[in-house]
Amino acid sequence: MTERGTRPTRRRLSGPAPRARRQGLRDHARSLSKATPARIALGVFTLLIGVFTALLSLPIATRDGQGTDLIDALFTAVSAICVTGLVTVDTGTHWSTFGLTVIMVAVKLGGLGLMTVASLLSISVMHRLGLAQRVITAQETRAERLAEVGGVLRVILITSTAFEIATFVALTPYMFVTEHGVGESLFLGLFYAISAFNNAGFVPEAAGTAQYLGDPFFSIPIGLAVLVGSLGFPVILVVVRKLRTPRRWSVHAKLTLTTTALLLVVGFGGYLTMEWSNPATLGNQDVGTKVLAAGFAAIMPRSGGFATVDVGQLTTESRLLTDLLMFIGGGSGSTAGGIRVTTFALLMLSIWAEIRGNPDVEVFGRRIPHDTIRQAIGVLVMSATIVFAATFVLLRMTPYSLDQVLFESLSAFGTVGLSTGITPSLPTEAKAVLALCMYVGRLGPMTLGAALAVRSRVRMIQYPEERPIVG
């Protein structure tokens, strides 16, 4: 009797605690579901930056086992998560195999998209997606309908992995032929494949990529991986699904591909012309090397960040051209940064329509809504303001010239990774400014564009119209 009487009592005493814990978890999940997608994205990015900073701070992450200063570990973690490639310590000589692996994982997570990764995990564990997660992931993947998110996620993962594997297969045998060991060749091939497709620009070799100047077996696979990664998953999905019917491609895909092609032609012609006689870069090379190096250089400002010539030795005109290409960046929903090529294209089309006196912006037989043009203007102005502020602060903190500081600021904001060589010698405060610029550059335009789209509304009452003088 005693045992039977005491058992219920124990269950009653221990019952409220699990219920309270379950209720607490429900409340926490409910609060997360009410959070805006922008806040969740910022929170997840910040959390992962903290995790990878801690991992890179460990002594095992460095070759000498002495550990890394907090600011350098933080800067590298931000650069990897934001798929930038700017570094304050030499990647090939400072980090151990463990440290390079940490960087590679961070690049993969940052490039694929943290919301995409979280949703894929949700699919694999729960076999379903909640509405809040679908909205977040739709913003990250640019899915046209919420019902398509699950399928889009799977296609994104398969497509990105397929391109990385193709690059890995193309590079690994070449690494082995160039006197690298089997294990080293496999690691370098994988690292370069992930770094290239995700537009990160991290280089795991001490000799850097200058050793591959004019080398087609390195330049072509890396260049193609960077180019495809910079187009954006929405474009890749449309092309893959409707490869044989280009007329059915979306306006976004057509606009991205057309603008990217034009920018590549401008970049190639510009670099080839302005560096042809520069003895510090291409002046002493043969014609084939010059052509290949100019093509490679034209792709990298998309957000690739690899360089086979010393960026610090480029002519002033080439640096200015690179500044413009880095600010424009790659495609929306891609691993690239910048204001994005569609934003640039819409602004140019808007100016052309204004010059011709057309009331609407039209392209490929479609009319672009006015609120989309306003969003593009908002992204442009906010992005230019961020770059200006970062450049101004860095000029106050460092002794470097305007063109050097502006180049670094644009490279950080555009998550490009190209550098004139001044990043390692910056003071701690300036490194923190560049890290913040990378962080804002990775999340800012995407979050701002989504916020402007969500805040679009119809007003029932309007003020009388009056035109101020323009120009």
- Average pLDDT score: 83
Helix percentage range: 55-70%
Strand content: under 5%
Strand tally: 2
Low-confidence stretches: 1-14
| SSE pattern, N- to C-terminal | HHHHHHHHHHHHHHHHEEHHH
The first-to-last residue Cα distance is 96 Å
Structural class: mainly alpha
Which outline best applies? globular
Based on CA atoms alone, the radius of gyration comes out at 25 Å
**Cross-sheet strand order for the largest sheet:** 1-2
Total count of helical runs of at least 4 residues: 19
How can the largest sheet be summarized? 2 strands, antiparallel
Structure description:
With 471 residues, the protein is an all-alpha fold. It is built from 19 helices and two strands. It has helices at 2-14, 16-34, 37-57, 70-81, 91-94, 97-112, 114-126, 131-141, 149-177, 182-197, 216-231, 233-241, 251-275, 287-299, 316-328, 341-356, 370-397, 402-413, 428-454, and strands spanning 361-363, 366-368. Helix 13 packs across helix 14 (287-299). The longest helix is centred in the middle third of the chain and has 29 residues, at 149-177. The relative contact order is 0.09.
